[in-house]
Specification:
- By secondary structure, the chain is an alpha/beta fold.
- The chain has one domain (about 5-245): Rossmann fold (3-Layer(aba) Sandwich), CATH 3.40.50.
- Helix content is about 35%, strand content about 30%.
- It has helices at about 40-50, 75-80, 95-105, 115-125, 145-160, 175-185, 205-210, 230-235, 240-245, and strands at about 5-15, 15-25, 30-35, 55-65, 65-70, 80-85, 90-95, 140, 165-170, 195-200, 215-220, 220-225.
- The strands form three sheets. Strands 6-9-10-3-11-12 form a six-stranded mixed β-sheet, sandwiched between helices. The protein has a four-stranded antiparallel β-sheet with strand order 2-1-4-5.
- A hairpin with a 2-residue loop joins strand 1 (about 5-15) and strand 2.
- Bound molecules: adenosine-5'-diphosphate and magnesium ion.
- Magnesium ion (MG) binds next to helix 1.
- Keywords: ATP-binding, Nucleotide-binding.
- GO terms for molecular function: ATP binding; ATP hydrolysis activity.
- Pfam families: ABC_tran.
- Belongs to the ABC transporter superfamily. Ycf16 family.
- This is Fe-S cluster assembly ATP-binding protein SufC.
């Protein structure tokens, strides 16, 4: 069993405090739904866990299996088993998607895998994603549709199978079929051994991935935690009832 512990985390961007004391523990096998109105710090929390340099941690702790990761770079955190599926995946002109995925896989395997072996793995993992293999030849995310970018994130998640996945609005921009494919992939028995934090606004997505825990973040703080009943209540009543509790 592995564990991420976030303790009284304060995070600023360009001297503006965004997270104002977040406490959250996620263990292997748990799926945490993270909800909250736009602009309240959900992506900031995930980026801070991943180690984005723009997000300054002014106080608090992030522990992976009891050890602080705050001094670790993004690639060290990735190698330690943390993965972020980004809300807005970056385009990398000039780098083919296959080259990129090869680099991603090999960075986690001491460069031990040959391209042929990696290609085989990619084909296998892409298969369940309804992912057009022609996208491997194109530059990373360049001209990909919203749905294709999101599937590319899930492809990386499947290739790495990390200890913890932080999944930021993967369902935004997906059509009904793609939503079904993505949630089916996340429901894979092997992947579900991970701990996950999943950000989404939509109950229809959470219904498919069955979170074990749910949290609401407002103004940089988790103001409500519980089980999936929180997702149901937000779906029917919005956020006013949570705000009223502050
Ligand atoms: N790179 C950035 N530079 C400046 N402000 C930012 C940056 N990223 C996020 N913010 C601000 O931080 C706040 C929280 O943003 P974010 O974590 O993206 O919210 P959420 O994911 O909950 O919609 C917002 O006010 C947003 O404008
Ligand atoms: Mg966000």
């Amino acid at each position: 069993m592995h564990k991420i512990e976030i303790k009284n985390l304060h995070v600023s961007i360009e001297d503006k405090e965004i997270l104002k004391g977040v406490n959250l523990t996620v263990k292997s096998g748990e799926i945490h739904a993270l909800m909250g109105p736009n602009g309240n710090g959900k992506s900031t929390l995930l980026a801070a866990i991943m180690g984005h340099p723009k997000y300054e941690i002014t106080s608090g702790e992030i522990l992976l299996d009891g050890e602080s990761i705050l001094d670790m770079t993004v690639d060290q955190r990735s190698k330690a088993g943390i993965f972020l599926a980004m809300q807005n995946p970056q385009t990398i002109p000039g780098v083919s998607n296959l080259e990129f995925l090869k680099y991603v896989v090999n960075a986690h395997n001491d460069n031990s895998k040959k391209l042929k072996e990696i290609f085989q793995e990619i084909k296998e993992k892409a298969n369940g994603l309804d992912f057009d293999l022609n996208m491997l030849k194109r530059f990373v995310n360049d001209g990909f549709s919203g749905g294709e970018k999101k599937k590319n994130e899930i492809l990386q998640l499947k290739l790495l199978n990390p200890l913890f996945s932080l999944i930021d609005e993967i369902d935004s921009g997906l059509d009904v079929d793609a939503l079904e494919v993505v949630s089916k992939n996340l429901n894979d028995e092997e992947l579900k051994k991970q701990g996950m934090i999943i950000v989404s606004h939509y109950d229809r997505f959470f219904k498919k991935v069955n979170p074990t825990h749910a949290h609401v973040i407002i103004d940089g703080k988790i103001v409500k935690s519980g089980g999936s009943e929180i997702v149901d209540k937000i779906n029917s009543e919005g956020y006013s009832w949570v705000k009223g509790n502050e």
